[in-house]
Structures are given as C-alpha cells and as structure tokens.
Amino acid sequence: xxxVHVDPTRAARHRVARGIPKRDRADRRLIASMTLAGxxxxxxxxxxxxxxxxxxxxxxxxxxxxxxEALHRLRAALMRIWPAAVxxxxxxxxxxxxx
Length: 99
Description:
By secondary structure, this protein is mainly alpha-helical. The protein has helices at 8-18, 24-36, 48-81, 83-88; strands at 4-5, 41-42.
C-alpha cells in the first residue's frame, strides 16, 4: 500500500467548498477523492544518512537538556549550602558553566 501526504489545509478548503461536514467518514471520502484526483504528495522514504542525522540531532538536543538540568541542580545545591558561591562566578565569563 502506498502512503501519501494530503495537505490538511487543502483538505479543509475542499471540505468547505463542497459543504462537507467535519466527520471521520466524510474526511475519509474526501481524502480518497483527492488522492484519486492526484492532489497529494507522495512520501519519500528517508535515506540512511538522513536517519543517522536525525539520531545525532536528537542526541545533541538531549545532551543540551541534560547539561542545563545539571547546571540548574548545581545552582540549587549551591544556593542551599553556600549562597555566596553562586555569585563567585560572574555571568560575564560563563557563570557556573565556566571552568
């Protein structure tokens, strides 16, 4: 079975132009008629390079989030134990992130 992409905005315009109510059964018929009329975009399978890039980008986002979380935990711990330590590292040189 071939998978295609039907633009939701275009489908909504067709629905309004034909006066079709927003229901699952009506949407199914509308999308089928749009597909038969050729008003769709075929989905292109991702290459292995694109999949690898997606994995690396996801890992990068997760690493950045973990770094920010660790920084927030460090700041909170320092504020509880030694509040002056937070201001010891000025933000102009990176704050708590600086070596």
